[in-house]
Amino acid sequence: FSSMEAYSSYMPYDHVLLMRTVSTPSPALILPPRSSPGVLNGSSTSSSTFGTETIAMVHTPPTSLTHPQRSLRQPRDQQGAPIDILPDHAFLQIFTHLPTNQLCRCARVCRRWYNLAWDPRLWRTIRLMGDVLHVDRALRVLTRRLCQDTPNVCLTLETVVVSGCRRLTDRGLYTVAQCCPELRRLEVAGCYNVSNEAVFEVVSRCPNLEHLDVSGCSKVTCISLTRDVSVKLSPLHGQQISIRYLDMTDCFALEDEGLHTIAAHCTQLTHLYLRRCVRLTDEGLRFLVIYCPSVRELSVSDCRFISDFGLREIAKLEGRLRYLSIAHCGRITDVGVRYIAKYCNRLRYLNARGCEGLTDHGIEHLAKNCLKLKSLDIGKCPLVSDAGLEQLALNSFNLKRLSLKSCESITGRGLQVVAANCFDLQLLNVQDCDMPLEALRFVKRHCKRCVIEHTNPAFF
């Protein structure tokens, strides 16, 4: 888009009105101080600042620029830029690939671009990034403009992504909740100033919300409806939140009681990620399975209190479970893995890295029962040896990804058995394993498409 960026530089700056609402405002949302340029959606932009605080700017629609649709019969030196020849639908197609900040900049070029840039079809998504971005104000200005044709309500906006915007507060989420009833996807990963109350407000006011990412939001300990909404919906309480995808990775304060509330309200969950929610125990997983029987993907990696009893509860999901991560859950042994292997026979992905209680017996049960297994990570499992790999090779013909990183008991013999039987292997990790050069070459000969991650300097 070099020609578009060059054309946007013609915009006279005297049209900029700081924080003054006009009849048809167009916000320029990039606001890092000049001393430390910021990036929004991967694009650096200019800004106006007072001191060190960044501010949102509101612009009038361009009026002084010559209208781009000139007669083609004029002399070439008097015609507009070549890009002006494009029809409107071509511009719209180009604009769909622009991030939010660049779309706002295009709205400042000329009146035609202004009208095209604010076409409702381009505003199904708002995507903002940057530590210094005053994101609360940016969301307020954007939603105000998008609500212009439908006062107080933006019916087109379905996705808001503000991950990494550390200045986001509850105020910004309240703006989204009040103005965007059709919201379907919200990502606020790493926004640690967000609290339960704001999340409750979004969930209660956006009944179509299906995808919620609050990973790294350490103040979020629960997902629930607001108290007023819960009372109003009784006795259907617990069945009104349509969230299917929920990521609460690094929500350190989440406990069993909070997971109980989440499960009771979000009964349609299919994807749940609880990585490093270190306070969870087996009891919380029991509540999850009771209320959310449709879970297909589940991660409890680094939840150190999860044990074989928790896996026994997870196994009640049976054939619905496709993805399971129990990495670094030190209390899990062959007993828990046996429950998973017996009842979750449609499992496709298992990450058991760092489960030091896992042995060849657990791998054998897994290989003989989960015949559709495609990805397995048993790195840092010192009790898994060549015997376990042989059982895996003789049964798991669909295996495509295998990680054996730092497995001390595995030798080249086990690796050769895997290579001779798992022809579709695409990724093999044997880093920090004492693997002879001949074994690595054997894998390369039998698994042509396999990428081998290794630490043997003699193998290329």
TrEMBL record:
Keyword Repeat part of the UniProt annotation: yes
Segments for region (Disordered): 60-79
Keywords: Cytoplasm, Cytoskeleton, Leucine-rich repeat, Repeat, Ubl conjugation pathway
Predominant location category: cytoplasm
Compositional bias (Polar residues): 61-72
Gene3D superfamilies: 1.20.1280.50, Ribonuclease Inhibitor
Location in or out of the cell: Cytoplasm, Cytoskeleton, Microtubule organizing center, Centrosome
GO CC terms of this entry: centrosome; SCF ubiquitin ligase complex
Record-level GO BP terms: SCF-dependent proteasomal ubiquitin-dependent protein catabolic process
Domain F-box residue range list: 80-126
Pathway: Protein modification; protein ubiquitination
Domain of life from the UniProt record: Eukaryota
UniProt cross-references to InterPro entries, sorted A to Z: F-box-like_dom_sf (IPR036047), F-box_dom (IPR001810), FBXL15_LRR (IPR057207), Leu-rich_rpt_Cys-con_subtyp (IPR006553), LRR_dom_sf (IPR032675)
SUPFAM superfamilies per the UniProt record, alphabetical: F-box domain (SSF81383), RNI-like (SSF52047)
Sequence similarity: Belongs to the FBXL7 family.
Family matches, as PANTHER family: F-BOX_LRR-REPEAT PROTEIN 7, PARTNER OF PAIRED, ISOFORM B-RELATED
Protein name in the entry: F-box/LRR-repeat protein 7
UniProt organism field: Sinocyclocheilus rhinocerous
